[in-house]
Amino acid sequence: MRTMKKLFKLLFTFLFLALVVLLIVFAFKTFSFNSKQLASIEPIEKINLDAACTNRFVSSIQVPTLSYADRIDTLAFEQLDSLFQKNYPMLYARMYMRPINEFSHIYRWKGRDPSLLPILLIGHTDVVPIENEEAWEEKPFSGVQKDGYIWGRGTLDDKINVVGLLEAATLLMQEEFAPRRDVYFAFGHDEEVGGKNGAVAMAQFFKEQGIQFEFVLDEGLVVLKEALDGLEPPLAMIGIAEKGFANLQLSIDLEAGGHSSMPPANTAIGMLASAVAALSDEPFPSRIDGATQGLLEYAGPEMDFFKKVLFANLWATEGLIKNSLAKDATSAALVQTTTAPTIFNSGIKDNVLPSQASATINFRILPGETVASVRDRVEKVIDNPAVKIAVDENFSSNPSPVSSTSSFGFRVLQKTLQETYPETIIAPGLVIAATDSRQYAHVANDVYRFTPVCIARDDIGRIHGNNERISVDNYHDAIRFYKRLIENAAK
Questions:
Q1: Which of helix, strand or coil describes residue 296?
Q2: Which of 147, 208, 277, 289 has CA 20 to 30 A from 491's CA?
Q3: CA-CA distance, 122 to 218, in Å (whole number)?
Q4: Candidate list 81, 126, 218, 459, residue with the active-site label
């Protein structure tokens, strides 16, 4: 009996000491979880921009530069090119401009020091079609100014970046600013349909010319209000990576169908439905690493105490955080390769068993995985040789590399953001959609993705959706951001 008491006492002592050590580790990790925001960065004064500046942006929105999978309206892109030349004569006089495949354009602002690597600021001039014009409060290409907002397709995606850069460069030229390093712009005309004739061709041109960039900045994440529970200030997220994507075609082709009155145990539709259900029932495992881990490391120290404890101790809380994030579709996309059945085809008549069935499954692929690894996992999960699996080569791309958060490019972006959006917290992040930026990875040390606008969660749905709009103040702040970025990167 005495021996048992000693054992219980030893066990209790061991558990107590383990708990004390655990609490000490938690406390140490929490209180050493220091801010990654840059210290002693003073905000800069806002630029006073007039109505003419706003009207130039409006005039670009009024040009319907729509791109479709099989065509573009060439007249609209010609009209926009002429409009830019009319609105920015100083820029066209001082920058070298080279058209690529007629409607994409590269601009070079020559710097004073050829030993420095250039920077590349990119955007795209095409916009997505309108699904239902009747659902818009204002006509999608009206450029109407109402209640402090500019309405129209392209106000958020992506003419704000293109015109904002043109305005910023013009302002600097009017101040006789002479960049120390070369500053390039590259504006594609087919980003919304993959960028084959725009970004792909422009990146190839840079490669052939042997031009390597210090960093590339494209559209991407934004300054988001109420971005995270436990974080009061808006969160400015700089995309340091973007997910890959792939469409996988699942198909079944039986020798015969038959009459619906005598269905066999396994039908084409039944087997394919089971395959799709298996993929939905066994999602890809969640991971917190790369860009998403960077987001937590930068935002965590600025959050309330409970969230700070959680994010400071990922070694112990990672499973809890992953499970919490996986419950919401938006946050789950940051930690998982997502699986989305989008098309299902089979059958011709209600009493005929089809011999064929097909489905399209769309995957958005987390960095660290590939199109090939996704296909391999799909085959393993379905585990049915009757289901044929094919990758749509026209719609597949591996995830981008993860860019550095300690490089010149990230630091200059962080500094510029703290100067122009002083009330925000800056953090790296993962872009879950596709951008032109992935085409430039092989000609740049780092690639970043950020659109300088401050919006609420509800406004995100306006991108590619109905009632796309941007506030006039937001547009002016975007110009201010780009102007300061060029000054910081090239002075």
A1: helix
A2: 208
A3: 5
A4: 126
Q: What is the CATH number of the domain that holds 353?
A: 3.30.70.360
The H or E element containing residue 160 is: helix 159-174
For 360, phi then psi, to 5°, come to -110, 125
* Residue 423 annotated as catalytic: no
Helix, strand and coil content of the chain, in percent to the nearest 5, comes to 40, 25, 35
Q: Is the pTM of this model over 0.85?
A: yes
Residue 433: which region, alpha, beta or left (left: phi > 0; alpha: psi -120 to 50)?
Answer: beta
Percent of the chain with pLDDT over 70: 99
What six digits make up the tokens of 258?
């038959």
The tally of domains found in the chain comes to: 2
Query: Among 434, 430, 368, which residue's Cα sits nearest to residue 397?
Result: 434
Q: Residue 243: what pLDDT?
A: 97
C-alpha dihedral sign at 136, 137, 138, 143: negative
Statement: residue 401 has pLDDT above 70? yes
Domain range for 442 is 51-223+402-490
User: Which residue is associated with the tokens 């340091």?
Assistant: 240
Report whether 143 contacts 237 (CB < 8 A): no
Listed residues 366, 397, 428: the one ending a domain: 397
Task: Answer yes or no: is pLDDT of 360 > 70.
Answer: yes
Is the separation of the CB atoms in 383 and 294 below 8 Å? no
Rounded CA gap, 427 and 416, in Å?
13
Is 42 labeled as catalytic in the residue annotation?
no
CA distance 339 to 234: 30
d(CA 292, CA 242): 11
Q: Token pair for residue 22?
A: 């655990």
Instruction: With beta carbons less than 8 A apart as the criterion, state whether 291 and 428 touch.
Output: yes
412 and 489 Cβ atoms separated by less than 8 Å:
yes
- At 2, the pLDDT band (50, 70, 90 cuts) reads low
Mean pLDDT on 276-284 = 95
* One domain for residues 440 and 466: yes
Q: Where are the beta strands (DSSP E) in 326-446?
A: 338-346, 352-353, 356-365, 388-397, 425-431
Q: What is the mean pLDDT of residues 478-487?
A: 98
- The predicted structure's pLDDT at residue 1: 58
Are the C-beta atoms of 357 and 269 separated by less than 8 Å?
Answer: yes
Task: Collect all residues with Cβ–Cβ distance below 8 Å to 131 and sequence separation of at least 6.
Answer: 466
In a domain, 41, yes or no: no
Residue 320 lies in a domain: yes
The catalytic position among 191, 436, 459, 487 is: 191
Reported in sequence order, the residue ranges of 398-446 that DSSP labels E, i.e. its strands, are 425-431
Distance CA 433, CA 221 (A): 10
Q: How far apart are CA 437 and CA 451, in angstroms?
A: 13
The DSSP output letter for 336 is S
Judged against a pLDDT cut of 90, whether residue 263 lies above it is answered with no
